[in-house]
Amino acid sequence: MRLTPLRRAGLLASAAVAAVATLALSSTASADEPTTDDKRATPYTKNIDIRHPEACTVGGLTGETIHPNEFTYTGGDNQIHLNITAVLSDKTITGVVVKGGPNFNVYLAKDLGALPWNELRAPFNDGGQQPEISHWYGCGVKKDTSTTTTTTTTTTTTSGSETTTTTTTTSATETATTSSQVAATTTTTAAAVAAGESLASTGFGSAWLVGLGAALLAAGAAVLLVLRRRRV
């Protein structure tokens, strides 16, 4: 099929419009996707600040907002870079937001590592230039607090050296038992000697006394008898 000049012109115009549309879409896509040369950061486009409801929920952040006054830093607002050397807040930092122009960088604490955090910055602007920082803030959560009580006993020797030992005190209750011993008193009662029974022999002989008494009685009787006869 042979193209007429009019039809050929129409096709060329359509191709030109398609090319312009593609270029416009590409430019728009590039403008919507901010970039940064800091590998520690993730860039976003949004008009966000410390008072924004999503201030500490964007980019994986958690916790509450922390004002710049609670950091020790150099640079920051109206500067290209921000250098954080210390955190004065009693919260655990989860990240830092650095904004410049329409874009901002989110720095998560796990990607920043240990302090100091140097040369934090905003993403590139639409012209590919590094903009000044318009504002920044931190995010953090309350620290877990635990109390540990340790009882220590310190002993100082005569040589002046000090020895510290941890001791555990155990209270032991001792029950004292008192034994009372009462001397037993034994009372022995001698049984009465039954009538007609002889006393037990004790080793002392008394039979001769009985015989002597009988002899004296007999002698006395004989004397009385003799005296009576003489009177007769």
List the helices and strands and how they pair.
Elements lengths: L4 H28 L8 E5 L18 E3 L4 E5 L6 E6 L3 E10 L2 E6 H4 L4 E4 L14 E8 L9 E5 L5 E5 L40 H25 L1
Antiparallel strand pairs: 1-6, 2-8, 3-4, 4-7, 5-6, 5-8, 9-10
Short description:
The protein is of the alpha+beta class and 232 residues long. The chain has helices at 5-32, 109-112, 207-231, and strands at 41-45, 64-66, 71-75, 82-87, 91-100, 103-108, 117-120, 135-142, 152-156, 162-166.
What would your notes on this structure say?
InterPro entries: TAT_signal (IPR006311). Residues 146-172 have a biased composition (Low complexity). This is LPXTG cell wall anchor domain-containing protein. It comes from Lentzea alba. The structure is a single chain. The chain is of the alpha+beta class and 232 residues long. It has a domain at 41-142. It is 25% helix and 25% strand. The protein is built from three helices and ten strands; from the N terminus they run H-E-E-E-E-E-E-H-E-E-E-E-H. The strands form three sheets. Strands 1-6-5-8-2 form a five-stranded antiparallel sheet. A three-stranded antiparallel sheet has the order 3-4-7, with no helix packed on it. The protein has a two-stranded antiparallel ribbon with strand order 9-10. A hairpin with a 2-residue loop joins strand 5 and strand 6. The longest helix is centred in the first third of the chain and has 28 residues, at 5-32. The termini are far apart. Mean pLDDT is 76; it is low at 171-204.
